[in-house]
Amino acid sequence: MPTPARYAVIGHPIAHSLSPFIHALFAAQTGECITYEALDGGAAVDGFERVLAGFWAAGGCGANVTLPFKLRALQCADEASAEARAAGAANALRLVDGRVEAHNFDGLGLVRDLAAHGGALAGARVLLLGAGGAARGALLPLVQAGAARIVVANRTALRAQQLVQELAAHLPASVQLAACALDELPAAGAFEVVVNATSASLGGAAPAVPAAAFAPQTLAYDMVYGKGLTPFLALARAAGARCADGLGMLVEQAAASFAWWRGVQPDAAAARAQVQRHLKQQGIECL
Ligand code: NAP
């Protein structure tokens, strides 16, 4: 038996993480000999850095990083992908010849899951709600996928403006990028894709997005998962839009991490169906 290659997800808290379950599915699908564990980075000032250093010293090959450590994960890296640099954060690390490489697959996961739900991005008008880490990570991959116009709208309009200004340097001039406050949205008309990258759904609220943002062909996507039909998705559905939650994004970013580490692409759609069954068995609401 070969010694399994060691992988982990580091976050705080981390007990709830679905990543060990998802990567165990990928390992079973592909026959890759790995272990994948959940490590708590704790609340100490240098907790994440110490856990990560200990993980590398113990033979760790790669790690996913989740809240609240994605910014610090990028700072720990010797090299970073364009996506991680644009996001200012990393959600995947690997150790290659003693050097730490960082990537951010959250945006790619979103783009792949939008495609899986029939959300064509080439030439599309996209509304991105939110200006936190998730919105920041989504912007460059949305552009790379061919979105023609992206409007970033946030409760705190200044943060949306800052995000767009910072990211403009990383983006081709061909894409139309705009920032606005939520209450300026009625003038913007309808979008083909509306992504809720705010954390409002976690608190049972919806960002104040007007019904006019949705048309019958719009795909409304909430990055949050396990909350059923969130207030944002209910609003979108009432306006005639199609709805999807962020479970597929989670599985797709995990699949991209796995392929980056192992050189083997797992079947994300099959894993997503299994994760959904797993959640439903625990009484967790899925779309
Ligand atoms: P974050 O950095 O804390 O940003 C939160 C954002 O939500 C900010 O733009 C904030 O606006 C906005 N917001 C919060 N409550 C709101 C409300 N009631 N109404 C309107 N806007 C509100 O969080 P994040 O890291 O970007 O994560 C955002 C969400 O994405 C989380 O729910 C997270 O679970 C989800 N996510 C999912 C995946 C996945 O794989 N599916 C991956 C990453 C993140 P202000 O700037 O005005 O405060």
Protein architecture, described:
The chain has 287 residues and is of the alpha/beta class. It has helices spanning 19-30, 47-57, 70-75, 82-87, 106-116, 133-144, 157-168, 231-238, 247-262, 268-281, and strands at 5-11, 34-40, 60-65, 79-80, 92-96, 99-103, 125-129, 149-154, 176-181, 193-196, 219-222, 242-245. A hairpin with a 2-residue loop joins strand 5 (92-96) and strand 6 (99-103). The protein is globular and about 60 Å long. The termini are far apart. The model has no long low-confidence stretch (mean pLDDT 96). NADP nicotinamide-adenine-dinucleotide phosphate is lined by residues 106, 109, 130-135, 154-156, 159, 197-200, 202-203, 205, 207, 223-225, 246, 249-250, 253.
Task: Name the descriptors.
287 residues; alpha/beta; 10 helices; 21% strand; globular
Termini gap = 41 Å
Strand content: 15-25%
**Which structural class do you get from the secondary structure elements?**
alpha/beta
> Which segments are poorly predicted (pLDDT under 50) over 5 or more consecutive residues?
none
Question: Largest beta sheet: what is the strand line-up?
Answer: 2-1-3-5-6-4
| Helical segment count | 10
What sort of overall outline do the alpha carbons produce when their principal axes are compared?
globular
Report the average pLDDT across residues.
96
Largest sheet properties: 6 strands, mixed
